[in-house]
């Protein structure tokens, strides 16, 4: 029950944020500060959600750290999302295997 | 007229293929993450069917599993998804005459970073048929990827599942890094947000702040700092 209430709020707010301006807005935002703020929001969200959570994402801080550090390389080179993600997973997996056998 | 609307729809479908493929993999990561956090496969898929947003869903997941309140959920989703308002405003200026009210009410549900980028980069007016075509496949790919990821999360051996748990963070990194490399403002904003997020997590005074509010505080503070220190010049807005 609690889940469905949260889901309702989550989906409702997400929809309203997209729908209201699409239906009602007729003017362009001209304030550079507001525009810049909205431009930076995604990066701020992703930064805050990734660090430090990524280090807890595999249940083992060492394998998570290795996975994260390894994926920085293809990410820096601008490789596709899936390539970067699989690099992180593969590096974390190999690290876990090694730790399992020593 | 019918001919033209069909051509527009098909043109939208064609443009949506790369988006759909990308969503399949990102939502796979979300599916695994959701069942790892204790949600059922069904719950994970319903979230994807009703929200269609990666960052918002991951944040929502932490509010759900962290015992957050409805208010917290509402504020978190509002702040995190606020960029869609900007995209909606921008895209609403480019709609053609076919875009009546029912079309605006339905198509707005499917405005994502990638859909916005493709639709607004098309260089001509956007018809409702085109936008429907553009949204359709990514929407179902998003749900299908979640289903596959959640199901895989339930049957995979624990060690493999643990390793896949990091996948969605890898995708987040892949979104941020190229932009941070190009613009010092993006780099600064990301570092500030990450530092604040660590501070809230590890400094005992802040231990009362829940996961959802932590994301809200970090986002608003870091994006505001970026807007003041590195104002963006003529930019259409959006993730890339």
Question: Can you give keywords for this protein?
Answer:
heterodimer; A: 102 residues; mainly alpha; 0% strand; B: 240 residues; 2 domains; globular
Report on the architecture of this protein.
The complex is a heterodimer of chains A (102) and B (240). Chain A is mainly α and 102 residues long. Chain A is 77% helix and 0% strand. Chain B folds into 2 domains: 164 residues, no CATH class; 53 residues. Helix content of chain B is 77%, strand content 0%. In chain B, helix 1 runs antiparallel to helix 2, helix 1 runs parallel beside helix 3 and helix 4 packs parallel to helix 12. At the A-B interface, helix 1, helix 2, helix 3 and helix 4 of A face helix 1, helix 2, helix 3, helix 4 and helix 5 of B.
Average pLDDT of chain A works out at: 91
Q: Output the structural class of chain B.
A: mainly alpha
Treating each run of at least 4 consecutive H or I residues as one helix, how many helices of chain B? 12
Number of strands of chain B: 0
Instruction: Give the total of beta strands of chain A.
Output: 0
> Number of folding domains of chain B?
2
**SSE run of chain A:** HHHH
- The span between the termini of chain A is 46 Å
- Overall structural domain count of chain A: 1
* H and E order of chain B: HHHHHHHHHHHH
> Which stretches of chain B are low in confidence, meaning pLDDT under 50 for 5 or more residues running?
235-240
End-to-end C-alpha gap of chain B: 34 Å
Radius of gyration of chain B: 19 Å
Helix fraction of chain A by DSSP (H/I, runs of at least 4): over 70%
Which structural class do the helices and strands of chain A define?
A: mainly alpha
**Uncertain parts of chain A:** none
Oligomer: heterodimer
């Amino acid at each position: 029950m609690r889940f469905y209430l949260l889901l309702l709020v989550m989906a409702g707010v997400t929809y309203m944020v997209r729908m209201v301006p699409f239906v009602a807005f007729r003017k362009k935002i001209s304030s550079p500060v507001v525009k810049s703020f909205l431009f930076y929001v995604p990066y701020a969200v992703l930064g805050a959600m990734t660090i430090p959570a990524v280090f807890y994402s595999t249940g083992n801080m060492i394998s998570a750290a290795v996975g994260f550090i390894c994926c920085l390389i293809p990410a820096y080179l601008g490789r596709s999302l899936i390539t970067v993600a699989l690099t992180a997973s593969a590096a974390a997996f190999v690290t876990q295997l090694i730790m399992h056998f020593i | 007229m019918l001919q033209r609307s069909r051509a527009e729809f098909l043109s939208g479908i064609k443009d949506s293929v790369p988006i759909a493929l990308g969503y399949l993999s990102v939502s796979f990561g979300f599916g695994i993450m959701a069942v790892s956090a204790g949600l059922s496969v069904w719950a994970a898929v319903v979230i994807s069917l009703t929200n269609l947003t990666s960052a918002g869903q991951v944040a929502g997941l932490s509010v759900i599993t962290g015992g957050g309140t409805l208010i917290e959920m509402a504020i978190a989703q509002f702040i995190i998804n606020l960029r869609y308002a900007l995209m909606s405003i921008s895209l609403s200026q480019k709609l053609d005459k076919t875009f009546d009210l029912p079309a605006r009410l339905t198509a707005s549900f499917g405005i994502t970073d990638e859909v916005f980028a493709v639709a607004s980069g098309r260089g001509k007016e956007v018809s409702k048929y085109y936008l429907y075509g553009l949204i359709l496949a990514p929407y179902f790919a998003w749900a299908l990827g979640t289903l596959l990821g959640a199901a895989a999360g339930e049957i995979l051996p624990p060690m493999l599942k643990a390793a896949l748990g990091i996948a969605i963070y890898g995708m987040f990194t892949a979104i941020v890094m190229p932009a941070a490399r190009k613009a010092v403002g993006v780099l600064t904003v990301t570092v500030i947000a990450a530092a604040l997020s660590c501070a809230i997590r590890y400094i005992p005074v802040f231990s009362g702040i829940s996961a959802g509010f932590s994301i809200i505080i970090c986002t608003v503070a870091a994006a505001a700092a970026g807007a003041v220190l590195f104002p963006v010049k003529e930019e259409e807005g959006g993730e890339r």
